[in-house]
Amino acid sequence: MSSSEILKELNIAYQGMFYPMETDHMGHANVRYYSRAFNEAAYFTFTTAGITPSYMRKNNRGMAAVTENFEYKREIMPGDLIQIRTCLINFTSKSLHVWGVMTDSCTEEICAINDQVCVSLDTQTRKSVPWPNDIFIRGQSLVRDKPSI
Fold first, then answer.
1. Hey, where are the domains in the chain?
2. CA 126 to CA 51: how far, in whole Å?
3. What confidence tens digit (pLDDT) does each residue in 83-120 have?
4. In the list 20, 21, 67, 121, which could disulfide-bond 62, CB 3.0-4.6 Å?
5. What's the rounded Cα separation, in Å, for the pair 11 and 6?
6. Whole-number Å distance between alpha carbons of 149 and 144
7. What is the DSSP string of 114-138?
C-alpha cells in the first residue's frame, strides 16, 4: 500500500492555505505555523474520543502537551494548500498520543510529520487527572498502529 493510500485511512483534522504572513525571514513556513496547524489538528482529533470543548469547559478540564516532535520533509510556500491527517496511537488512563502528517493537497507530498503526547489536565489544580470511563473506552477503541510511511 502506498503512503497516500495509508494516509487516506486517517482522519482529516486540518485543511487550509499557507499565507505569506506566516513565513519566516527565508520566505517559507515558520515554526510557529507548523506548531499552530498541528495543534489545531490535535484538538480536532481529541473530539473523536469525546474530549470536546464543551466537555472541557463543563468539567474544568484541559489538555497539556508533554512531548512533541516534528519531522520536516518539504518546505511549504505561500499559497500551498495543506492538509493534516491524524490518528491516535496510544490512549492511557491520563494521556493520549496523537500522530499527524501534513501533506500538500495538490501534490500529496508529505511536508511534515508530528507526534505529541498530551495529558488530561484539571484546569483548577493544574494536575493530570484520569479520563472519565466513557472517554477512556472510546479513546482506546480509536487507537491504531502508527502508519509506516
1. 3-142
2. 17
3. 999 999 999 999 999 999 999 999 999 999 999 999 99
4. 121
5. 11
6. 14
7. EEEEEEEEETTTTEE-PPPHHHHHH
- Find, among 69, 114, 122, the residue nearest to 94 by Cα: 122
pTM for this prediction: 0.92
80, HSE (Cβ side, Cα atoms, 13 Å): 24
Say if CB 117 and CB 94 are below 8 A apart: no
d(CA 61, CA 131): 10
Place of cell 505569506: 20
Q: Write out the three cell numbers for 136.
A: 477512556
C-alpha cell, 35: 506548531
What are the φ/ψ torsions at residue 131 (nearest 5 degrees)? -70, 155
With b meaning 16 or more CB within 10 Å and e meaning fewer, what string describes 18-40? beeebbeeeebbeeebbeebbbe
Helices (H), the chain: 3-8, 31-48, 53-59, 133-142
Top CATH class of 3-142 equals: alpha beta
Residue 83 sits at the vertex; the CA angle it makes with 81 and 85, to the nearest 5 degrees, is 170
